[in-house]
Backbone:
């Protein structure tokens, strides 16, 4: 199914179709979410790119679940997230329950979502990936 692949550093689109948004049931189009992962000073960094909703969350969900099972520290680089709804919020909170998770560089829309739901009082957010890994 388009959007179900976990993407590695080549940053191919989630649908594997050259950056075009995959069509979703009901005529909605996903924003081509993609995931990249790497290790940095003993922490596993998962980089989220694009828009995340219930139609596009699966690759990120898979990446964070694998990281949580293998690494003692996980950082979500959210700097390239263009849209986030309750699907991403739920995933972040569930991941945080299983492993120390830091959210790095959340864009204004995601910061606002964390604030209005109170999740910012539970989660550790940092301005940069370097700050999240180093602290």
Residues:
């Amino acid at each position: 199914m388009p959007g179900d692949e976990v993407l590695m550093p080549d940053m191919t689109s989630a649908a594997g179709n050259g950056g075009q948004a995959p069509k979703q049931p009901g005529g909605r189009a996903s924003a081509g979410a993609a995931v990249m992962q790497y290790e940095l000073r003993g922490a596993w960094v998962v980089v989220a790119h694009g828009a995340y909703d219930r139609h596009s969350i699966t690759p990120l969900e898979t990446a964070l679940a694998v990281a949580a099972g293998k690494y003692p520290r996980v950082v979500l680089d959210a700097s390239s997230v263009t849209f986030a709804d309750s699907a991403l919020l739920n995933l972040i909170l569930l991941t945080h329950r299983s492993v120390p998770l830091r959210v790095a560089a959340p864009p204004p829309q995601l910061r606002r979502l964390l604030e209005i739901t109170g999740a910012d009082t539970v989660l550790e957010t940092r301005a940069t990936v370097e700050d999240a890994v180093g602290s």
